[in-house]
C-alpha cells in the first residue's frame, strides 16, 4: 500500500534574541517529532534570531514575517498564504502575538488551530486579551501546567478543549555526572555553588534571590552564587548585588548554550518566580531535577506540580528572602539531604518529563484534530 503523506504542521513563534521556555520546547518538539508522520515548518515574527537558526539545524524550514508595527494585521494575511502554499493541516502557535496571528490566519485558511498556555498568572492587559481571543478561536489548547489552565479557565470556558502536556526533555542529555570541570566552564574552583537559571526579566524574582544570597554568603562564606541568563534587567540585578556588597560572590554568566554542563556542577538550584506574574511549568526546575539537583523554588503557579516540598526540594512563599535563605542553607549543610532530594527529583523527571512522553502526547492531539 502507498505510504500516507505526512501531516504538515506550521509553528508560529517569536524569535527575539533569547531562547526562553516556550522556544526551548518548540525546539525539543522539532527534535522528537516523527518525521514520517509529521512535517514541521516554522514562521518567526522576527528575523535573525537563535530559534530560527536552531530550527534549521534540526531540518525545519523557516519563514519570517516582518511587521511594520506591533498590530500589523497584514501578518495574518501573509501567514494565511503560507498555510495554503504549504498545504498546512494544523497551525500550532505559541504565546501572545504569535498565538493571535496564528489563530486568525489558521481560521482564514481553513486549518485547525492549536494555541498554547505557558504561564499561570497575570499578563499585560493587551497580551491577556489577545491570548484569550486566540483561545476562543482555537480548536485545541495545550497547557504545560494544570495551574496555567486553571488560571485562564477558572472563570471562562475553554477547559474542555484543553490538554495538559508537561514539557519534555531528551533523557539522554541528562547525565548527573559533570561532563566538564569547573575551570573549563569558568566557575570558581572551590566552594559550594548555588545556581539560578532564567532570563533576567521582571518576570523572575531575582531581587529576592540575591537578598537570600547575602545571608547565605554570611553563614556559609565559602559558597558562591551563579546566575545563568540574560535580559533587560541584568544591569538592575547586578546593581542590587553591588549595593548589598556581594557582587564579588556572584557570577553573572549571561546567556550560555552549555547550561546543562554548568548545572551539573551546582550543589543547590534555585528558581525565584515573581509572585505577581507566577509561573507555568519551569524548564529550569525540570532541568535541575533531570540532573538530580535539589531545588529551592517559589511556591507559585506550576512550581508545586514539579517540586514536592520536603521530598524533591523546598517551596518558599513569594518574596520571602529569609525563608529562601533558610532552605538553601539547610541543603548546603547536609550532603545526604541534597543527594536524596536530587535522586527523587530525577525519578519524577524520568516518569513525567521525557521528550518521548511529550512528543507522544502532542502527536496524539495532532492526529485527533486531523481526523475531525
Plain-language structure description:
With 372 residues, this protein is α/β, with parallel strands linked by helices. The protein has 2 domains: 7-168 and 354-371, Rossmann fold, CATH 3.40.50; 172-352, 3-Layer(aba) Sandwich (Rossmann fold), CATH 3.40.50.2000. Helix content is 43%, strand content 16%. It has 15 helices and 13 strands. It has a 7-stranded parallel beta sheet, sandwiched between helices. Strands 10-9-8-11-12-13 form a 6-stranded parallel beta sheet, sandwiched between helices. It is globular and about 60 Å long. The model has no long low-confidence stretch (mean pLDDT 93).
What's the shape? globular
- The CATH topology of the largest domain corresponds to Rossmann fold
Largest sheet: 7 strands, parallel
Q: Count of DSSP E strands? A: 13
Structural class by helix and strand composition:
alpha/beta
Descriptive labels:
Rossmann fold; six-stranded parallel sheet; seven-stranded parallel sheet; 43% helix; alpha/beta; 372 residues; 15 helices; 13 strands
Brief overview:
The chain contains 15 helices and 13 strands. The protein has 372 residues and is of the alpha/beta class.
Write the layout of secondary structure elements.
Elements: E1 7-13, H1 21-32, E2 38-44, H2 50-57, E3 62-64, H3 74-85, E4 90-93, H4 96-109, E5 112-117, H5 125-137, E6 140-143, H6 146-153, E7 162-164, H7 182-185, E8 193-197, H8 206-219, E9 224-228, H9 234-243, E10 250-254, H10 259-264, E11 268-271, H11 283-290, E12 295-298, H12 303-306, E13 313-316, H13 321-332, H14 335-352, H15 355-371
Parallel strand pairs: 1-2, 1-4, 2-3, 4-5, 5-6, 6-7, 8-9, 8-11, 9-10, 11-12, 12-13
Helix pairs in contact: 3-4, 4-5, 8-13, 11-14
Amino acid at each position: 500500500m502507498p505510504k500516507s503523506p505526512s501531516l504538515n504542521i506550521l509553528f508560529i513563534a517569536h524569535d527575539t534574541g533569547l531562547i526562553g521556555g516556550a522556544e526551548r520546547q518548540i525546539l525539543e518538539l522539532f527534535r522528537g517529532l516523527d518525521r514520517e508522520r509529521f512535517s514541521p515548518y516554522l514562521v518567526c515574527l522576527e528575523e535573525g534570531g537563535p530559534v530560527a537558526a536552531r530550527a534549521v539545524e534540526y531540518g525545519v524550514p523557516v519563514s519570517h514575517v516582518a511587521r511594520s508595527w506591533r498590530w500589523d494585521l497584514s501578518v495574518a494575511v501573509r501567514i494565511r498564504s503560507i498555510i495554503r502554499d504549504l498545504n498546512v493541516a494544523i497551525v500550532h502557535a505559541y504565546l501572545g502575538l504569535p498565538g493571535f496571528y496564528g489563530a486568525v490566519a489558521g481560521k482564514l485558511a481553513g486549518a485547525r488551530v492549536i494555541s498554547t498556555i505557558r504561564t499561570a498568572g497575570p499578563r499585560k492587559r493587551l497580551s491577556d486579551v489577545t491570548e484569550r481571543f486566540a483561545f476562543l478561536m482555537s480548536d485545541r489548547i495545550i497547557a504545560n501546567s494544570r495551574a496555567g489552565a486553571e488560571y485562564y479557565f477558572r472563570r471562562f470556558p475553554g477547559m474542555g478543549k484543553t490538554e495538559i502536556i508537561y514539557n519534555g526533555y531528551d533523557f539522554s542529555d541528562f547525565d548527573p555526572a559533570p561532563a566538564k570541570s569547573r575551570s573549563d566552564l569558568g566557575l570558581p574552583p572551590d566552594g559550594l555553588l548555588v545556581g539560578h537559571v532564567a532570563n533576567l526579566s521582571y518576570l523572575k524574582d531575582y531581587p529576592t534571590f540575591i537578598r537570600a544570597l547575602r545571608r547565605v554568603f554570611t553563614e556559609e562564606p565559602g559558597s558562591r552564587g551563579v546566575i545563568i541568563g540574560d535580559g533587560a534587567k541584568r544591569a538592575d540585578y547586578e546593581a542590587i548585588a553591588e549595593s548589598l556588597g556581594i557582587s564579588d560572590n556572584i557570577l553573572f554568566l549571561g546567556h550560555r548554550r552549555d547550561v546543562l554542563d554548568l548545572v551539573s556542577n551546582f550543589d543547590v538550584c534555585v528558581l525565584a518566580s515573581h509572585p505577581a506574574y507566577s509561573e507555568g511549568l519551569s524548564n529550569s526546575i525540570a532541568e535541575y531535577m533531570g540532573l538530580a539537583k535539589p531545588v529551592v523554588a517559589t511556591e507559585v503557579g506550576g512550581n508545586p506540580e514539579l517540586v514536592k516540598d520536603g521530598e524533591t526540594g523546598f517551596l518558599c512563599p513569594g518574596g520571602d528572602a529569609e525563608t529562601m535563605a533558610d532552605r538553601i542553607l539547610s541543603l548546603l549543610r547536609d550532603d545526604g539531604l541534597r543527594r536524596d532530594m536530587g535522586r527523587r527529583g530525577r525519578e519524577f523527571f524520568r516518569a513525567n518529563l521525557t521528550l518521548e512522553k511529550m512528543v507522544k502526547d502532542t502527536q496524539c492531539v495532532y492526529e485527533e484534530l486531523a481526523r475531525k
